[in-house]
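We recall that each integer encodes one residue's backbone shape. We quote one record:
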Amino acid sequence: MIEVSTDAGRGARTPAHLMHGMVAALLVLGLSGCGREPSSSPGESADVAETTSTAAAPTKGFQDYSVEVKLSPAAQARLAKGKETIVISADYFGQPIPAAASQAKLGQLELGHSQQEMSGAGTARFIGTGFLSDKLASISGDPLVNINVFSGRKSSPDNFLHCDFFQDTLAAAAKTPVVLHCKLIDEPSSSTR
């Protein structure tokens, strides 16, 4: 029988132990390429692209998406009067794999944050700024996004907008523009639709 010595005095390992480790490593490497498009960058080999990928659904990774903010007439007037802005805030997260559970906060692994500021109603495009793609290997399933809208607090220390929010996969956000309606907090519910 051949024994392989390991460092730090952990003792000897037999070929059977090595086989278990090799099978686990091959399984991780084999699954890590699932859903990943072959690399098209010059000089980057497909092996590098596959080993840096993750083991999940084909849509895993950042996908550009748009958020359209619609304002009630009263909210638009208040923004214009106070030279106020709208902030669209996106938080990215995912379900941690067991090995990353200790890094999770409230059961979710943070994958970054991005926000854009606009002067009024309109559409903002999110292209991956603030998204931590290096953490994708630590989540199971697709990355998720939570999108909120609030006033920029330039004319008041408090938010005065009541807006819809969005929470789903990045893939769902990328399918069609996410439309969020906003009104003043003290405005009746049917003002923006």
About this structure: Residues 36 and 140 are 15 Å apart (CA to CA).
